[in-house]
Amino acid sequence: MEKEKVIKRIMVILFWVYFIVLLAERITSLVLSIANDVQIWENGFYIFAYATTIFSIISFIIFIIINNKLFIKLFRFKDDISDDDLKLFAALSGIILVSGMIHTDYTNLIIQFVSYAFLIGAIVLKGVLLHRNSQNKWLLWLSIIYLLCYSMAIPVCYYVTLKYDVLFYIIQGITMLVLVYIFTYLLYKLFDGISDLFIWWPIAIAVILDVAVIGIRFKETINYFLIIFLGLSAVFYLVGICYKYHKNRKINY
């Protein structure tokens, strides 16, 4: 029991490092854009990019104010971290992730990837906690790998010069927002103790939307990163489904 408390405390620290590093990078990007006279309202993409980033940051701050116990418990070591607290952290991750999926001027991708590494650490530690009492440990870790691949299959919104740029921005923006929501939903389920994340509709939506994003730009630029992780997401989904089918057949026999 004491070990579980320590792991939960480490998870909270990892979540907060993720939040602080990503938030600092996003705010720095906004400040530098304003300081260097970037015309953030000059076209539709810039309006969407900066407005969505600001809205994401403000929503994050409001969420923290409303659920201030999440911040207080970081420093009050005598307070136990509950499973409900961790579920709130999962929800909060999705709110701030929206800002991280938009390429504004002076975006620092290295810092963003560093911040995400801490979120991955928290997810893996949740897997460690679930592993002890899980009835199907293989399915649990397949679900976690699938979840991580799914998160990487969310397209980053960025400025392009295309003949059909308006259509691309609309599809790209919708895809990003929808897949961030679905990723947050799956992450919340994991932190709610659900070790089987192999639901058909999240991967179906990801394939449809990502293929649309990839297809529109295919003649100009091939997004290999998105193709690779969408492919890995689909592969691990199929592996998980096949494993479940095989497991159920063994039980029935």
What would your notes on this structure say?
It contains 9 helices and no strands. By secondary structure, it is mainly α. The chain has 2 domains: 133 residues, no CATH class; 119 residues. The protein is flat. The longest helix is centred in the first third of the chain and has 34 residues.
Give a short account of the largest sheet: none
Secondary structure: helix percent: over 70%
Shape: flat
Q: How much of the residues is beta strand, in percent?
A: under 5%
Please tell me the total number of domains. 2
Secondary-structure-based class equals: mainly alpha
Mind telling me the C-alpha Rg? Answer: 19 Å
Give, in order, the helices and strands.
HHHHHHHHH
Extract low-pLDDT stretches: none
How many β-strand runs?
Answer: 0
Number of helices: 9
Distance between the termini: 37 Å
Question: What is the overall pLDDT average?
Answer: 91
Task: Present the secondary structure layout.
Elements (H helix, E strand, L loop, with lengths): L1 H34 L8 H23 L2 H7 L7 H18 L8 H25 L3 H16 L12 H27 L8 H17 L7 H29 L1
Helix pairs in contact: 1-2, 1-4, 1-5, 2-4, 4-7, 5-6, 6-7, 6-9, 7-8, 8-9
